[in-house]
Every structure is written in structure tokens, then in C-alpha cells.
UniProtKB/TrEMBL annotation:
Pfam families: MerR_1. Keywords: DNA-binding, Repressor, Transcription, Transcription regulation. It comes from Secundilactobacillus odoratitofui DSM 19909 = JCM 15043. GO terms for molecular function: DNA binding; DNA-binding transcription factor activity. CDD domains: HTH_YyaN. Residues 1-71 form the HTH merR-type domain. Gene3D superfamilies: 1.10.1660.10. This is Transcription regulator. InterPro entries: DNA-bd_dom_put_sf (IPR009061), MerR-type_HTH_dom (IPR000551), MerR_fam (IPR047057).
Length: 153
């Protein structure tokens, strides 16, 4: 059963504008057209669009995706080349994950730091080393702010 562009947009979460743009950019040469010239998508097309979405979401440029699509359209003669593309993209995603984990560790540290600062009533009372994410957060009790004074009580 063929799907209209609106149905594909609904199924994929991509806008009809994005789908048309991808088609104009040569990312969907596999999509057929009916007698009226309207795009008709198949389940296999949806799978390929999902792959395009994955590649884009992992940072691959549209020009690189277009090259991949061109290779896929050539068939089995390009299997090794396509395998290498996926291996390279996998490495790129692995690096993104590692960097994101470092950012997450820093954010976790900052959450602990600012929770301690809120508890102490000021940042000056709090110390730690954000370059060591698991470093302990230390509160200097002599620098704590008396909340009653701050709130005017």
C-alpha cells in the first residue's frame, strides 16, 4: 500500500517540507510517483528514510548522506564502501558519546556544587575541583550565610 507524503510525515515525524527538501536534494531517488505526479512511498522507503534520519541525527552532512544514497542505488557493488561509511559514522558517534559523558559528569558536579551553595547560602562557602567530577564538595561553615539575616527575619 503506497503512502502519501502527509502520511509519511505523520509516521516519521519529519515535516512534509523536510521530505520534499530531501527529495530535491537527491536523498530519496527511490520514491516513486503516481500518474498525477505525486510521491508514493512504500514501507521500504520508510525504512530508508529512517536510516537517513539516523545518519543526519548522528551528525552526517546531507552531502555525505547523498553520496551514501547514490552508492546504495548502485547495489551490491558498493557494499564494502557502504560498510566503511557506517564504520566511520559509528566511530564519530562513539566520540560524541564519550564527549557527552564528559559534559554530563561536569554538569553533575555543577549540580552538586550549586546544591551545596544553596545550602550554604552563598557560593563563596563552597569549594571543589570541577576538573575532577567525583571530587568532594566542601562547605566552609565559617562562610555560611545566616538565612534569617538574608531574608530579613
Amino acid at each position: 500500500m503506497p503512502y502519501s507524503i502527509g502520511q509519511v510525515a505523520e509516521k516519521t515525524g519529519l515535516s512534509t517540507y523536510t521530505l520534499r527538501y530531501y527529495d530535491r536534494e537527491g536523498l530519496m531517488p527511490f520514491v516513486g510517483r503516481n500518474a498525477a505526479g505525486r510521491r508514493e512511498f512504500t514501507d521500504d522507503n520508510l525504512d530508508f528514510i529512517d536510516l537517513i534520519t539516523c545518519l543526519k541525527a548522528t551528525g552526517m552532512q546531507l552531502s555525505e548522506i547523498r553520496k551514501f544514497v547514490d552508492l546504495a542505488m548502485q547495489g551490491d557493488a558498493t557494499l564494502e564502501t557502504r560498510l566503511n561509511i557506517f564504520k566511520q559514522q559509528r566511530q564519530a558517534v562513539q566520540k560524541q558519546i564519550e564527549q557527552s559523558q564528559k559534559y554530563l559528569a561536569k554538569l553533575d558536579y555543577k549540580v552538586r556544587f550549586f546544591e551545596a551553595a544553596c545550602d550554604a547560602g552563598c557560593e563563596a562557602a563552597v569549594s571543589g575541583d570541577c576538573d575532577i567530577p567525583d571530587a568532594p564538595i566542601v562547605i566552609d561553615d565559617s562562610l555560611r550565610v545566616n538565612r534569617a539575616k538574608v531574608s530579613g527575619r
